[in-house]
Amino acid sequence: MHEYSLVQAMFDQIGDAMRRHGAVAVRRVRVRIGASAGVEPALFRTAYEVFRIRTACAEAPLEIVDVAASDELTLDRLELEVP
Amino acid sequence: MCDSCGCGDPKVISFDVHERILAGNDRAARHNREHFRDHDVVAVNLMGSPGAGKTAVLEATARAFGAQARLGVLAGDLATENDARRIRAAGILAESITTGNACHLDAEMVHRGLHHLPWRSLDYLFIENVGNLVCPAIYDLGQDVNVVALSVTEGEDKPLKYPTMFHKADLVLVTKIDLLPQLPDVSLDTIEENLKSVMPRPAMLTMSARTGAGIDQWVRWLEGIGGPRTAACSSAAGGGRAS
Q1: What chain B residue is nearest to A9 in terms of C-alpha separation?
Q2: Using the beta-carbon criterion (under 8 Å), do A2 and B135 form an inter-chain contact?
Q3: Using CA atoms, how far apart are residues B110 and B107, in angstroms rounded to an integer?
Q4: Between chains, do B102 and A77 touch, taking CB under 8 Å as contact?
Q5: For residue B99, what is the enclosing H or E element?
Q6: How many CB atoms lie within 10 A of CB B47?
Q7: CA separation for the pair B15, B13 (Å, rounded)
Q8: Contacts of B16 in chain A (CB under 8 A)
Q9: Left, alpha or beta for B54 (phi > 0: left; psi -120 to 50: alpha)?
Q10: CA-based nearest residue in chain B for residue A10
């Protein structure tokens, strides 16, 4: 179940992006997961749902783009709320 | 607030990030790798199921090298110091990385573990990963090579069931071959076939830590990727490294 530590790493990345942009909340998160990334998209989503409670991502749906024949695992796009 | 259309909504910006989720781990791994290169240490990430024989491989490796090479081990486990104790008893420097509940090692854990091991003086650093054929595969630790131990008792189809792990392996060590007479349904040829279907550059060695069969080939393979430093090159940067 390394999906939890991956989501933790992604929250660190999102936190960095929010600081850079002075954002107050996250509106949408998009990740890309390759079929051979060694990551189960459903477990990644479950981990995200657990982690985001009472965080800046609480209202941010997660979109997962499945990428065939790739080991890609990237934070692809963010939508942030700024004051 | 949105000041373009007067809708009253908070302002929302959206942008591409395109950053690997493991970018932080990758940075830590690069840092470890630079350390290993600078000090001419060959780092081997040894992975495999619980009970695949990883610790026994290390004990046998220590016996085979004897005084010819300086070996060290960072042993990852959820709990206990058992592996590190066993390895120390075989005469190798060893330190435990107890991961708590984490199912894998990451580059930062390895970096912290190095603080407890005189790793700069080693020829080979073995990082014995947490017994698991899934999670450790995706974390770069800064190693030179990935080696996966696969015991004959685990079944021939493990490479097909856990392709990501075997895809990342530079070498698969098929262990416990002394048990083959008791396993009439297990064929080394089938294991090799299965490895060929998932490894980009298939490489397999067979061994028995108990009888010593195959240990020589394993030691030669290790010497091929690094090899003990000789007196002539021990002070020169980059000496003795093949890759």
Answers
A1: B21
A2: yes
A3: 5
A4: no
A5: none
A6: 30
A7: 7
A8: 76-77
A9: alpha
A10: B21
A1, A25, A75: residue with CB nearest B21: A75
Closest partner residue to A38 among B11, B14, B138, by Cβ? B138
Q: Which residues of A touch B24 (CB under 8 A)?
A: 9, 12-13
Per-residue pLDDT of chain B (243 residues; tens, 9 = 90+): 555 555 667 799 999 999 999 999 999 999 999 999 999 999 999 999 999 999 999 999 999 999 899 999 999 877 777 888 888 888 889 998 887 777 899 999 999 999 999 999 999 999 999 999 999 999 999 999 999 999 999 999 999 999 999 999 999 999 999 999 999 999 999 999 999 999 999 999 999 999 999 999 999 999 999 754 443 333 333 333 333
Q: How far apart are the first and last CA of chain A?
A: 36
**DSSP-H helix ranges across chain B:** 23-38, 54-65, 82-89, 107-114, 158-161, 163-167, 188-198, 215-225
* A12 contacts chain B (CB < 8 A): yes
> A75 is written with which tokens?
């934070």
The ipTM (two decimal places) reads: 0.93
Nearest CA among A40, A9, A74 for reference residue B162: A40
User: Given the structure tokens 């079929």, which residue do they identify?
Assistant: A35
Chain A CB within 8 Å of residue B27 CB:
no
All residues of chain B having their beta carbon less than 8 Å from the beta carbon of residue A80 are 12-14
Structural contact between residues A61 and B53, judged by C-beta atoms closer than 8 angstroms: no
Tally C-beta pairs within 8 A across A and B. 86
Tokens 């392996």 belong to which residue? Answer: B169
Helix (H, G, I), strand (E, B) or coil at B71: strand
Residue A17 and residue B18: Cα distance in Å, rounded? Answer: 12
Provide the residue type at B169 as one letter: A
Cβ neighbours of residue B155 closer than 8 Å, sequence gap 6 or more:
B186
